[in-house]
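Subject: design request, 141 residues
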């Protein structure tokens, strides 16, 4: 009786298992990369929407200062893509006004600030920029 020391079936089985494991790893890597790319794209979209919401609130605040003599801000507006806040307004007719607004969409917030020197005959903005937190809101120079 002769005993065989090699078994060719095990070699093929090992190769198939290794190739299958590599294919599984490659597939999972691609799935994770595509999920990450989708999350980044969504975050970019929400960031753009939040900036537009902040602009809308800033425009609304300027319009309300022009039409309502005692308007002081501190208002929250809900729009179709998210919410925006008009933060409390600093200033008066003689010195000008400092406005800040925050737009929020999908958990992402962006803030804008503007300083108005004149309201009539047209609003004249002397400073306008994006800020990272409310403590950076513009003040009247």
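Subject: RE: design request

Done. Sequence follows.
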């Amino acid at each position: 009786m002769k005993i065989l020391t090699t078994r060719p079936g095990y070699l093929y089985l090992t190769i198939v298992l290794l190739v299958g494991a590599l294919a599984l790893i490659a597939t999972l890597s691609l799935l994770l990369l595509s999920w990450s790319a989708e999350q980044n794209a969504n975050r970019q979209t929400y960031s753009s929407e939040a900036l537009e919401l902040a602009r809308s609130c800033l425009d609304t605040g300027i319009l309300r200062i022009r039409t309502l003599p005692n308007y002081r801000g501190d208002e929250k507006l809900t729009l179709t893509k998210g919410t925006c806040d008009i933060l409390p307004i600093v200033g008066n007719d003689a010195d000008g006004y400092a406005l800040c607004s925050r737009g929020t969409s999908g958990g992402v917030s962006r803030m804008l600030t503007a300083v108005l020197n004149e309201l009539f005959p047209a609003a004249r903005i002397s400073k306008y920029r994006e800020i990272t937190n409310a403590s950076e809101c513009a003040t009247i120079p």
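The chain has one domain: 9-136.
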